[in-house]
Design a protein that fits this description.
Layout lengths: L1 E4 L12 H4 L3 E4 L8 H5 L4 E4 L6 H4 L7 E4 L9 H6 L3 E3 L6 H16 L2 H9 L2 H5 L16 E5 L3 H12 L3 E5 L12 H7 L2 E4 L13 H6 L5 E4 L8 H9 L5 E4 L22 E3 L8 H19 L9
Parallel strand pairs: 1-2, 1-3, 3-4, 4-5, 6-7, 6-8, 8-9, 9-10, 10-11
Helix pairs in contact: 5-8
């Protein structure tokens, strides 16, 4: 079988592609520009992508294509309707990055809650040495114990973040598509009003696009810590930027953006250097162990497909 891996660089140079390469003749591309996609998939039976977009315009000449494998859980970069109509199977990978993303989420919340960036800068700049004082306690920080942590989206990642929040002594509120008795489910409005920390873990869909915007931010506490490790477009990035600049959001961290990498005119360029902001390059999913699990799962998806089995099928 012919396999085309279109953006191998996004999986990390340290990761061996052997679990997939042993399955067939493999063409590996570090990255693929939009204008290169059609040519590179033209003769492929299997296409493996992470962030490359596959729409009908580039898929129409890929007459040998049988299977699209996503090195991700989200699949908003694939034209699913076209794939259904043309009998192209699509498989994603679920659950592989839960530990990694929840760890980065917790790290962001903890760092923002104790103002770690300005405290570190105070020491690294030499100001601490020059001060002659043994300690510095400004900016003032507060314990998370007893605070309310709101979680938007309660899949495997949201649940792991909830466990971390519980371990820190937080009250946990959850907003999810289908409320259940397994957690303290509330409306989005109540979560925004009550939470001291809000972390976002919901997939991007028509229902969730822009779900955190100006209206929701106005409901939040002024010192709220907002962290997004889901999808950038789940938030209204302009509204978030404005709220950070106006002090309407106390601290903000995100690993995801509506355009990746974000361009020089992106609103977050206005806040990227602020002491109460952490912006990371879509790395939360990518602990080494997580990426190994992802590739192993892709290999199993391919094996299952050719054995006539249904595994992690989106289409």
């Amino acid at each position: 079988m012919k396999i085309a891996i279109l953006d191998a660089k996004t999986l990390g140079a340290d990761l061996s592609l052997e679990p997939v390469q042993t399955l067939g003749k493999c063409m590996v591309y570090d990255g693929t520009e939009p204008w290169q996609v059609a040519e590179r998939i033209q003769d492929a039976e299997i296409v493996l992508i992470n962030k490359v977009k596959l729409h009908g315009g580039v898929l129409k000449d890929a007459t040998s294509l049988k299977l699209i494998c996503l090195a991700a859980t989200g699949y908003d970069n694939v034209d699913l309707e076209y794939c259904r109509e043309h009998n192209i199977a699509v498989c994603n990978v679920v659950g592989y990055s839960s530990h990694s993303v929840s760890q980065v989420t917790a790290a962001m919340v903890l760092a923002l809650s104790v103002h770690l960036k300005p405290y570190d800068a105070y020491v690294s700049s030499g100001s601490y040495t020059q001060s002659g004082v043994a300690n510095k306690l400004t900016p003032i920080y507060h314990e998370l114990y007893g605070k309310t942590w709101g979680i938007i989206g309660y899949g495997s990642i949201g649940k792991e973040v909830g466990a971390v929040a519980n371990a820190l002594g937080c009250r946990v509120l959850v907003h999810k598509r289908t409320p259940s008795d397994e957690c303290n489910c509330v409306t989005l409005e109540e979560l925004c009003r009550e939470s001291d920390v809000i972390s976002i873990h919901t997939p991007l869909s028509d229902d969730t696009r822009g779900m955190i915007g100006k209206e929701q931010i106005e409901l939040m506490k002024e010192n709220v810590i907002l962290v997004n490790t889901a999808r950038g477009a789940v938030t209204d990035e302009e509204a978030v930027c404005e709220a950070v600049l106006n002090g309407r959001i106390g601290a903000f961290g995100t690993d995801v953006y509506s355009v990746e990498p974000f361009p020089a005119e992106h609103p977050f360029c206005k806040i990227k250097d602020l002491p109460n902001v952490y912006l990371t390059p879509h790395m939360a999913w990518g602990a080494y162990e997580s990426r190994c699990r992802c590739l192993a799962e892709i290999s199993e998806n391919i094996r299952a497909f050719y054995a006539g089995k249904t595994r992690n099928r989106v289409v």
